[in-house]
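I have been asked to look over a protein record a colleague put together. Alongside the sequence sits a line of tokens, each denoting a local backbone shape. Please read both lines and tell me whether the tokens look consistent with the sequence. Take the sequence as given and treat only the tokens as open to question. I have pasted the whole thing underneath without changing anything:
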Amino acid sequence: MTDTPDPAAAPDIASLSFEAAMGELETIVRRLESGDVSLEESVTLYERGHALRGHCEARLAAAQARIEQVSLGADGRPAGTTPFGES
């Protein structure tokens, strides 16, 4: 019995949250490191893991782009926001 579903039955990667994708990626890494999977299954797991890694990187980049930095006015109170990385 496997911990990772058949790729045909696995959820579409684009619909996964960052946390769900990372969890599945961690499971794939453990299975590959165990050495208890066939060569064919290893290749399939590697391909899904590669796609999951790309999805996680894209989700992180999108989150970073949304981070806003609070700017303070002369009185020290929040005066507004600016996109992450801008001063």
Observations:
- Confidence is low (pLDDT under 50) at residues 1-5.
- Strands lie at 68-72, 78-83.
- The helical segments are 18-34, 39-66.
